Fold each of these.
Amino acid sequence: MNEVEITRRFETTAANTFRISLNPPLFVRGEGALLYTADNVAYTDLVGGSATSLLGHGHPAHRKAIMIALDSGILHTGTRLPSPHRAALYSKLSEVLPEHLTRIHFANSGAEAIEAALKVAIYKTGRRRIISFEGGYHGRTLGSLAVTHAEALRRPFEPWDKPWVDFSPYAFTDSQTDAALLVLEKLLTAEPVAAVVIEAIQGVAGVRGPCKRFLKGVEHLTRQSRAILIVDEIWTGFGRSGSWFAFEQAELVPDLVTLGKGLSSSLPISAVVGREEILTSWTPGSHTSTFQGNPIAAAAACATIMEIQKEGLVARAKNVLAPLMTSALKGLPIRVCGAQVAIDMGSKAASLEFQRRALENQILIYGGGVSGECAML
């Protein structure tokens, strides 16, 4: 099929759950931060596969690890049989995670990781209430959508038979902290809560945070209520925030952490990591998924972590990229945390126009923000 036929096939066959760009480029190869069309026109990719391609496109070590796994001829064995690639990933993750997070459950996407974290919190505590935060984004399956604040996304699927999620204000500045914590305290004391789920930095909402005093206050109140603290690192994990995990910047000690996106630098794999007593509380068969811990994706994830370590990419995101971004975008209303950048354009229309003009100049960016007002790099 040629470029026109491929685009037409998407328009006539794909379910109407996403919209492709107007006159989208069709890429046939990638190298580093560049994507190339069949005519060898290069585009600078500041989207990174929806924030997944931490190593860029076609990274040699990444490709090699995938090819070695493919050459074994074993594409999947299911969850009941051990896999050397999955075992290796357990080890690599343990190298970069805090010591108290000793157990790991693999899944296939960020939304699935959130689902698993919510389920085990309910299973462990015997409670049903969840608290999430205004501006938070955690996925679009029913469970993950229930803790996502965007009303436009949730409205078609409400009301639930019985509302089970409350949203508390998210403070991304110190001046907002006291009022936000007061609301959270009231919610936590109104009735028993199974879990509090929060992003240390709200990525999709436009790189908001981290505010250490607020996050430590959330941790303290959650501990007081004996609820489980779930930190969502799907967007920010593996160095994008300038630290391995954004919660480290606030010195949080989470009970469960959800990981995804950059974990494998583009292949479908995610994880819930957590305390021993939580992730061993449910019985075998309580929560499984056919392709969880797929060996090809696990091999890619191992290579990703190894290359982040080898190339010092966490320090690079913190010490090189943030100052560079700030200098390059001087004068624009921007928020930068590590390698995450949100340019506040003031409105969704202005953000869309900015994205369109960037595409005309062979630069790929996405929109974001609470109301779509941000251009995200």
Note: The first strand starts at residue 27 and ends at 31.
Amino acid sequence: MRGKQKRASAGDIMGAGVVTAENSSKLLDVARTMADKKIGSIVVVNLSREPIGLITETDILRTISKYEQKFFDLTAQDIMSKPLITIPATADVERVEKEMKRHKIKHMPVISSGKLVGIVTTKNLVDYLGKWEIKD
């Protein structure tokens, strides 16, 4: 079949079950949620449920190493990455890849009509690209 094929968008490849934590959540609770749900990142939201930051597994590990016992006193807001780098659900996969490289990030929340609708990870990109067959 020849002709133009629609490029996949961030909305097509994202994980839709995005997990959030309020900015006032204790870091220990955030870490437990991530472990229980087997996820590599969690989006931090304010009281209005607007996404304002991101916490990754790496952020948690660095914080434990740096703060040790003080870790238990910290909240999501204390260590979240900000400003939050997001991408529209309509952005094509090429743009997603470029933005992730430019910002040196592996997790990017997806926004549609001003609302958080999912998250794209490098794994989502690799899984999508792995579906393409290379022809000689």
Note: The mean pLDDT is 91.
Amino acid sequence: MTVTHNGKQYTAKKLNDNEWQLTSVSNPREKMTLNRQQMNIAGLLKQVEVKA
């Protein structure tokens, strides 16, 4: 699923119950792993839980 943060699009992949890996759509080498709390602070948790 695709999420948007700060004007950039990322593909979100759930690693386990608590972690997500975000991969930049424009630059697939740019990846970051966020836990549930970090996703919530960034406002991305709402985006992924609605789509999941």
Note: The chain has two helices and four strands.
Amino acid sequence: MKVNLLILFILCGSLVSAQRADTLSNGIIVFSDYRLPLLKSREAEVNSAALKIKARYIKGYRLMVLNTSDKNYAFKVRAELLQRFPNQKPYMWFANPYIRIKFGDFRTREEAERYQAQISRILGGAKIYLLNETIEVNPGKDFDPESMRAEILSQ
């Protein structure tokens, strides 16, 4: 009886095949919608436009201009910075009981040091500290995402 069952299983196993050779040699045929390449190009345009608008963050420098508890003086210094340097941004926040003002988004130390000397003269020789920080970079019209990615990776 056992021998008969063994022979039966061997015969059944030899008749069954999981794959046929002719299906393996043909390859794969994919049917896709003709609008897919159009959608892909439109998505790439939208992503590229979004990259040009969105602010990015990289390692850079800021200046610690002021750390005081005098609110009126802090607003006066902030207004002076905005008036004299409209292309740079002062960051003002309250850490009770102090008001702190950091200034600028500088990519290089040399650029930050130039502003440091100018602001020190404006504030009557006050000590301005140079800080390593993560800065905002707002790309312009001629922004190239690949160059930005390379700059971030090099840091």
Note: The helical segments are 2-15, 21-26, 36-53, 71-84, 109-122, 145-154.
